[in-house]
């Protein structure tokens, strides 16, 4: 397949010049970026992306953690086209559209039991904003206006809007805005590799739950909700919780009458080997947020799903003004919802969640070989969510310094070898599309290993 229409008129150099002239890229230091030759994607097929210079790449981070089946998947393409012939968009403010109704029904079917009402938006961050406002307002309606505060986890990431940043805790991204934010209370997310409590998972879980309980005992009466990235804390470096912690958090939230918000924006829709990560521990949160994979990685749809109990607290006479005054122009977009329905049908048809769970066992065994590399300190994996932490010294776990840009260099090498990746500091993130075949995964893993070796070892020979 070749690039068509607008691209065909322009050379790569002309397009790169326009990119440099007009586009400000997210999470990108533009001073360096504009010095480099940019990858400019023209099209994709299956698990690969193709650029204007005729190079092809594995989509090794699923286009920032969201692609599911691959690119240009016939069933999803057709669903969008069919919906386009009907209507591209109509509002959900006070009215409905067909795909958003059908999708909500489907979502309730696959959600952890008890989550029954779907509120749509268009990004992970907006789904979190909604969860925060919903939890806050819920307590006002319940006659407990003192419950206004939020607990979050250290190093949490919930998106880049101001509310989501307020419950975020990654200094590098969030500190600058501190005076703009509402304060949130932070507890420590259990991080086995660098735990001060040793290596015994049970001990780590116990210590962290004690920390949370102490806080809840003292301040539970003024806490509206706790927000957590269940099972895997993503942007902090793919930190996988030890077993039992999430269940413990759920129990403590119930005991101390605090709502639990599970942010499944990264973990939802099969990524960890269950449809939702909460299922690993049989947990139903009071509010679940999700986005990314919901449309198979096609269109911006996100959801905040909650219980009948919370929904019903907002019911009242018009003049009572209990309405949830929140919405976005593209809330419940029919094209996005049609894509999501087709995506979920493919999940079922291909038994994709089961496939991810099975293939992740294979991935684990292949990844184990990476420990033979001198600078691979820790490999963290849950399903198709993988983080490889590179360290200067394995014995002391000494970290590479920020200025060494080790993650950036490894990902740059991977790009040369044919795979697109994006690091989180010294952690190389590998998140292949969920439908990747074993052969495709093998190819991607070879590139990954080679890139790590070339950057961390070869230079020293
Ligand atoms: N929450 C979590 C756990 C995430 O990992 C992300 C993005 O990576 C977000 C929220 C924000 O999602 P979005 O980028 O769609 O706003």
Write the layout of secondary structure elements.
Elements: H1 6-9, H2 12-22, H3 30-33, E1 41-45, E2 48-51, E3 56-59, H4 62-65, H5 74-84, H6 98-110, E4 117-121, H7 124-141, E5 149-153, H8 162-166, H9 171-174, E6 185-187, H10 201-219, E7 223-228, E8 232-233, E9 239-240, H11 245-255, E10 259-263, E11 287-290, E12 302-306, H12 308-313, H13 334-349, H14 352-368, E13 376-382, E14 385-393, E15 398-399, H15 406-417, E16 419-420, E17 422-424, E18 427-430, H16 438-456
Parallel strand pairs: 3-16, 5-6, 5-7, 7-10, 10-11
Antiparallel strand pairs: 1-2, 2-3, 4-12, 8-9, 11-12, 13-14, 14-15, 14-18, 17-18
Helix pairs in contact: 5-13, 6-13, 10-11, 14-16, 15-16
Pyridoxal-5'-phosphate is lined by residues 65, 123-125, 128, 157-159, 229, 234-235, 263, 265-266, 291.
What does this structure look like?
- This protein is of the alpha/beta class.
- The protein has two domains: 39-69 and 351-460, Aspartate Aminotransferase, domain 1, CATH 3.90.1150; 76-349, Type I PLP-dependent aspartate aminotransferase-like (Major domain) (Aspartate Aminotransferase, domain 2, 3-Layer(aba) Sandwich).
- 38% of the residues lie in helices and 17% in strands.
- It contains 16 helices and 18 strands.
- It has helices at 6-9, 12-22, 30-33, 62-65, 74-84, 98-110, 124-141, 162-166, 171-174, 201-219, 245-255, 308-313, 334-349, 352-368, 406-417, 438-456, and strands at residues 41-45, 48-51, 56-59, 117-121, 149-153, 185-187, 223-228, 232-233, 239-240, 259-263, 287-290, 302-306, 376-382, 385-393, 398-399, 419-420, 422-424, 427-430.
- The strands form four sheets. A seven-stranded mixed sheet has the order 4-12-11-10-7-5-6, sandwiched between helices. Strands 13, 14, 15, 17 and 18 form a five-stranded antiparallel sheet that branches.
- A hairpin with a 2-residue loop joins strand 13 (376-382) and strand 14.
- The mean pLDDT is 96.
- The site of pyridoxal-5'-phosphate has 15 residues, from helix 7.
